[in-house]
Q: What sequence folds into this?
């Protein structure tokens, strides 16, 4: 979607290899009124979309610094180092920003299942105009990921 | 992320093939306080993530009924049949819902570039802890997509 932000507008015609500093970019990312931005996690080698989560500035900085995905948990209202309790870490292979700076795409190497249900991907329902259908079973028992869960 | 919604919780252990009706699902999707839900568009055959956009109930229903992606444009505050002015239609190949019903994944066959800049994907910036870098050039001049733009 087109942006009204001149920072992103000016980059639309920029040559390949054009650079901006990290600090400049951080100030221009379109965090919403809760300070959050959407982040898609995609398995880097297979292209499978694993999940969609949210980041704030701090979790983005941690992700890039530590080389593994850290999100903002909206349900727990705190930083969420993916895999901190389950071991299902996402090693960061690359991070993309979209054309108007309001979405991130993390290319990751997902260790084990990404989904809290024990499935590889969170997108395990197929929906058409008539019905929703369960596509996958858990790879592992989720209680094995979260202890006494 | 785990849901507090019993509808999604009860599906966590459902067998493959378990079904719910479309109307039931529509009532349980976690549209935000603006009535919107995130929708990722992914090229069905290559797995390339093309863009992230938003849908309301109506645009989701139109997408499934018409077999091509229709979003809600937050900047124009109206339904946005992808490609209606540019011809860059997304034919729908499948639609996934995530574990807690707050994100959609559209598997599409993207005609031409997905991005308003004329690039195939909107995610054309690489970001690391030091800099942002432009990865791709437009495939086509965006003014050719939008007329006198």
A:
């Amino acid at each position: 979607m087109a942006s009204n932000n001149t920072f992103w507008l000016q980059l639309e015609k920029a040559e390949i290899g054009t650079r901006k500093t990290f600090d400049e970019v951080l100030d221009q990312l379109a965090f919403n009124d809760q300070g959050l931005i959407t982040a898609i996690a995609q398995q880097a080698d297979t292209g499978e979309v694993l999940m969609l989560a949210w980041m704030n500035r701090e979790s983005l900085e941690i992700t890039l610094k530590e080389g593994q995905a850290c999100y903002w948990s909206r349900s727990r209202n705190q930083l969420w180092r993916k895999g901190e309790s389950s071991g299902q870490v996402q090693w960061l292979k690359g991070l993309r920003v979209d054309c108007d700076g309001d979405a991130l795409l993390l290319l990751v190497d997902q260790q084990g299942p990404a989904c809290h249900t024990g499935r590889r991907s969170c997108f395990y329902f197929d929906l058409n105009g008539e019905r929703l259908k369960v596509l996958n079973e858990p790879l592992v028992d989720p209680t094995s990921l979260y202890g006494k869960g």
